[in-house]
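Support case: user asked for a sample of complex input and structure output to validate their parser. Sending the pair below.
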Amino acid sequence: MRRLAAAIEGIGVLGPGLDSWLSTAAVLTGARAYEPARTILPAPSALPSAERRRAGRVIKLALAVAAEAVAQAGRPARSLPSVFASSGGDGDNCHEICTALTETERSISPTRFHNSVHNAAAGYWSIANGCTEGSVTLCAYDGSFAAGLLEALSQVAQSHAPVLLVGYDSDYPPPLQLHRRIPDAFGLSLLLAPVDSTRALATLHAGLSPQPPSRLAHPALEALRLDIPAARGLPLLERLAHGGAGVIALDYLDTVRLAVEIDA
Amino acid sequence: MSPLRISHYTATSCLGTGLAATLAALENERSGLAACDFETVSLETQIGRVAGVDAVALAPHLRAFDCRNNRLAQLGLEQDGFMAAVEASAARWGRERMGVFIGTSTSGILETEIAFRARDSLGGDLPADFDYEHRQNSFSVSDYVRRRLELTGPAASLCTACSSSAKAFAVAQRLIDANLIDAAVVGGVDSLCLTTLYGFQALQLMARAACRPFDRGRDGLSIGEAAAFALIERAPPATRAADEADAETIFLLGAGESSDAHHMSAPHPEGAGARMAMQRALDAAGLTPAAIDYINLHGTGTPSNDATEARAVGSLFGTDTPCSSTKAATGHTLGAAGALEAVICLLVLRYGVLPAGLNLTELDPQCPINYLTRMRRASPVTALSNSFGFGGVNCALLFGRGVPV
């Protein structure tokens, strides 16, 4: 089976009761108890003031986890191509537009409209960092994170250069909440680089596989994995938190998963 | 990058269903735009609507996917023997070695917009038959296509606004290059909805009459809808020599990507991001600007897009390279535009027809490019297609007939 390899140079995490990679790693190893609480989203201070006012929850989420991974790697954000992976994009914004379209005037604000594109978070990230490198935003429903990881790894393989991966998803307000039951916001970012990196936290090899997705031992964290699409990447973080070598499988499609082997 | 063979392709837009209708419209300089009569929309504008979408029936086992966008996808798949070509490719490579990557910007949001209207009488919830996963979610169309074609390899929807389906080619190319798959169905499907019609109206970017790309008096874009697909395959070593000897085989030679990092809905004033995307496509193919025979411009018809794109094209190619926007014929098909215009480039290479930019009265003097106002017959070997999206996300695709030296 053909596999793709990359070094992980940086990790960013934000989710319910999880405020950074370090605190998340402590929870995943059991060193710290998991205490679920509403995800706290920091203000996107990197954005110019006009864009900052226009940034909704999902943009704050994506920018925060991306910044954490990039800072850990110590690479300039403006030089990094990016892959943004999200199932639903900005649910609040979608709700507001669909509601406005039920009214007689059907008046949509220009900001609402340009924030409605699935790649809005990527656009804000590029503006915040003056990054003119290429950027892909994709969606594979609950398998969006694995799809993003696959694309990021294929970019590293083609360009032999670092790539930023940002997986993020947030909740819809009612009534869409009843039909897409995402309870809160979760984001997971990886700074991936060629395997000859001198800053590697770990090295991974990934390939397509039919094996079932790995589960998390902790019931509340396993529930989180299933509840928020971007959290389907948690088994990779659990493996990284424990250190050492191992193999996990990330959920992708009904027919195929992403098997990831971590080198010791 | 290594060139990838485009072994089959099809397009359905307001120009017609399938390649023959599309080619005939390009040869006859015909536009498919007409006064907006879509759904309950009351806007003074023109749209490029595909005839017969509402009558399309999905396969019974895929009824959950039933929405205008997936009906359009199905209508597109049925043209030009595309599904049979995919089946032959699956027999060669194996279903698990084929990916599906479709670009879309609005997926099945139309059905959600309509469902929201029904809320009040139902106490706030959406109608009982509302299905988020199979209609609204952006993956819906890729999931539909992979299930309809029974392909089991990797899949994703590309969602970079108006460059979505150009990106689909780049993403699939990388996975084939990385040897995770051998072939892919790539394309774009985007259908009319209220969000984009009223959204572009809100941005004051919509033309009142049919759009007039690169005209001095242009006043905005016209929205269209389309389904366009291509089957791209690794050229097996055994047949590579034969392909290279066959001047009629068409290849994806290069893809170039960049970001403007400037504004969410306005292009970089100098077209710096657009230029970088085109340069990178040339670099990936190992070609110089002088080797390009035709450019299909993004050319939306908005004052800012066309002016900045002309600057970018002029600075890289000079004023000689023949170019045109086909959006006055098809409308701006948004997430499907990259794939639709890629297929138009394939027709350009296959049939030697350089399409005219329609509705042009006077070329904007701020746009000193070799803009074709009449259809021209030629023997192009290379064609470049530009796609730029909100968020400043750019993608240029470079196609060639035979393998250029």
